[in-house]
Amino acid sequence: MNDSAYRVDTTSRLAQWRIDNLSSCSYRKSDPFKIGNWNWHLSVEKNRVLFVKLYPEISNLTRENPPIASFVIRVVCSAGGRKSLIHPEITDRQLKSNDDFVWAIEVPLTGKFIIDVEFLDLKTASPEGGDPCSIWGEGLTERRSNATALSSLARMLTEAIHTDITINASDGTIAAHRAVLAARSPVFRSMFAHNLKEKELSTVNISDMSIEACQALMNYIYGSISHDEFIVHRLALLRAADKYDISDLKEACHESLLEDIDAKNVLERLQSAALYQLPRLKASCMRYLVKFGKIYDIRDDFSAFLQCGDRDLIAEVFHEVLNAWKGF
């Protein structure tokens, strides 16, 4: 039997397998054919009924990110005039093995026939969680472009590709790019646009940040910060975001600091909220201390806060306490 007997012809979303005669063989499996991100197989097995299977080729991609397929499959037989059998449309079925889609055809088929598969959609699990994403869906090109651009930016930083500025942290240096820093921060842009020492010397001194915190800041600016790195350096990043007017980073820190207020950090966060004008964080810390009565659980820390805290902030706390007593 020639090789063409196993070949599947394809377009971007359509696959057709032409079978001349199955009478001499009870089982046949097609060559692999590519649709979307995966290689696929069709197979037929003739017993009392004809079993048609569609499945992706077993690979690491299939194991880790199996396709979720929507398709229409038909069998068109030439014997006795053109006869077409259509399986009900398959919607969002995950296909991992050769048993995940089996079509049992009880109608006798003889002579030449065609198995025709039209893929309506192919989805993969979303890397961000939630609903699966179509590989052909709206926004896919944009998502791929964004992901590639971020990966390239990260490489520019980690591999020091054509760097032209040096960041001096308190205990180390990082090579970076003026254009990237200027695009992310109006403060950096102003530094490099005017005849300031940063422009002349090609250095930026960030002496109030450790090298680890400064690296976290650069990783955020270049789009490659990890969640753990962000959590560890939140307060330092908040300070830098306020100093360099990086509004999205400031808001990200604000949102994160709201999530895990407890007795050990509430006073520090209250002071940060007042210093950096974070009203929701300030209100949440006040509620934790006053409405929930936690101020009585941290008497030693609160006494230290009274000794060195901002006078206006201390007055606000006492005002909240007095209001709470009135309503008790």
Largest sheet: 7 strands, antiparallel
Give start-end ranges of low-pLDDT stretches.
none
Listing every helix as H and every strand as E from the N terminus to the C terminus, the arrangement reads: EEEEEEHEEEEEEHEEHHHEHHHHHHHH
Rg (C-alpha, Å): 32 Å
Taken from the alpha-carbon principal axes, the silhouette is: elongated
Strand count: 15
Query: Strand-residue fraction?
Result: 15-25%
Distance linking N and C termini: 91 Å
Total individual domains: 3
Would you tell me the structural class of the helices and strands? alpha+beta
The average pLDDT is 89
Fraction of residues in H or I helices: 25-40%
Number of helix segments?
13
- CATH C-level class of the largest domain is Mainly Beta
What is the level-2 CATH architecture name of the largest domain?
A: Sandwich
- CATH fold naming of the largest domain: Apoptosis, Tumor Necrosis Factor Receptor Associated Protein 2, Chain A
